[in-house]
Amino acid sequence: MSKPICIDTAGPIASSGDDRPWTIRQAAQFLGVSPQSVYLWLGRKQIPHLRVMGRNIRFLRSDLETFRASFRQGIEGD
User: Fold this and answer.
1) How far is CA 19 from the centre of its chain?
2) C-alpha span between 77 and 71 (Å, rounded)
3) Does residue 64 contact residue 31 with C-beta atoms inside 8 Å?
4) Which of 9, 11, 17, 74 is 20 to 30 A away from residue 26, measured at CA?
5) How far apart are CA 33 and CA 41, in angstroms?
């Protein structure tokens, strides 16, 4: 028997038609990396982000699409 497919309804797929900023978890899912990688890029100031109400970090889809494109070009160029 096959296992049921679990879709994260709080992730980017569910909010693709939405302009609301994404959480770290949603950004990581969109980029195909772990949340720890996103935190690492934040610490290095390599990923575009917004700070909302102090320590809350959010991401805009348009910024992440640009970042993902440049990130993939860097990998393919190696």
Assistant:
1) 14
2) 10
3) yes
4) 74
5) 11
Say how far apart CA 76 and CA 12 lie, in whole Å. Answer: 25
Tens digits of residue pLDDT in 17-45: 668 999 999 999 999 999 999 999 999 99
Q: Which of 36, 37, 62 is nearest to 49 (CA)?
A: 62
SS3 content of the chain, % helix, strand, coil (to 5): 45, 10, 45
Cβ-count burial 21-40 (b if 16+ within 10 Å, e if not): bbbbebbbbbbeeeeeebee
Report the predicted TM-score, pTM, of the whole model to 2 decimal places.
0.70
